[in-house]
Design goal:
The chain is an all-alpha fold. It has 13 helices and four strands.
Length: 324
């Protein structure tokens, strides 16, 4: 039998290391707690992960295009608060499209700054994180939001109902994943996203409208955030004005876990869905074995470091750099 080289082992772990770790986690959690693979628990984990997953779908486009979006957590808080507030003032039929329009305007503004003005996406979205948080507090007056007549509205359908025995949030997540997956993998726009993220200069000289592609990616991300805000508001029928705070880290972790490179040019919607589920099941498993919820934050950080390391290892074909 041929001896495996460091390059072979490094290449395999770089491509499949996260899945190997996930399988080991699943086995360990199942042995530690028999409820882990209970159908109700599995369905509950997927349902809980749907909101995060919807946001991650949009961020996948941004990351593949070679950019970042750290504003999605604050933007989700804004979307949730706005739709809850407008629900009592305008009714759900007008509140939902109004919220989507406002959120898309925020995404368009970010896309304009990053795409057309060519500002650094990290700086822009980090600044927008604070700006949108301030906007949310100003809109809500620093107060939390609740729907006054929770029993007399159909608004709860999106977050609490079931169709064919499956929770609606899961169905929306699956439908959006299928649609965006087709857009990214099977259309000229999707190929342009990969081209812009893979080699920005070459894409420009090839006639690809780089600014328009980046702008559209941020619009897609904003649409997904608005959808997540709708699901969150409908699920709880009320919300704190900081409900999305910190979610940008988890969203980015899920996208990176799915194999999208921070350098741009690689990743798929399907793998992002896998990354979301990996993160959800690991967090659920930690709770079932008796660890406190705040341990999740430490584990999320470790997972991000591991995923970035494996991403870099995939680029050079080795787990370890030859230079100390």
């Amino acid at each position: 039998m041929a001896k495996l080289s460091q390059k072979d082992i490094g290449g395999f772990l770089a491509r499949q290391g996260i899945l190997v770790a996930f399988v080991l986690f699943m086995i360990g959690f199942t042995l530690a707690n028999q409820r882990f693979l209970d159908p109700d628990n599995v369905m509950g984990v997927i349902r809980s992960s749907a909101i995060l997953g919807v946001m991650a779908l949009g961020v996948t486009f941004v990351v593949i295009s070679g950019n970042l979006d750290l504003s999605v957590g604050s933007m989700m808080s804004f979307s949730t608060i706005v739709v809850l507030d407008l629900h009592d003032k305008l009714g759900p039929a007008l509140a939902i499209p109004a919220m989507f329009a406002m959120t898309l305007c925020l995404g368009a503004f970010i896309g304009f700054l990053v795409g057309y003005l060519r500002l650094n996406s990290l700086i822009v979205t980090l600044g927008m994180l604070s700006a949108i948080h301030g906007l949310t507090l100003a809109w809500s007056g620093g107060k939390n939001m609740d729907i006054a007549d929770k029993a007399g509205t159909w608004f709860s359908f999106f977050g609490q109902s079931r169709m064919m025995g499956i929770p609606v949030p899961i169905l929306i997540f699956a439908l959006l994943a299928a649609s965006l997956g087709m857009l990214l993998a099977k259309t000229p726009f999707g190929r342009k996203v990969y081209a812009v993220g893979g080699n920005n200069t070459a894409a420009t000289f090839s006639g690809i409208p780089r600014a328009r592609v980046v702008f559209t990616c941020y619009l897609i991300s904003a649409f997904c955030v608005a959808t997540a805000g709708l699901l969150q508001a409908s699920r709880s029928m009320g919300s704190q004005n900081t409900v999305g705070q910190g979610l940008e880290l988890e969203v980015l972790a899920a996208v990176i876990l799915g194999g999208a490179s921070l350098m741009g040019g690689s990743g798929t919607i399907f793998k992002t869905v896998i990354g979301v589920l990996i993160l959800g099941f690991i967090q659920n498993g930690l709770l079932l074995v008796g660890l406190q919820f705040y341990v999740q934050y430490v584990v999320t950080w470790i997972i991000i470091i591991l995923a970035v390391w494996l991403d870099i290892a995939a680029k050079r074909g080795k787990l370890w750099s030859p230079i100390a």
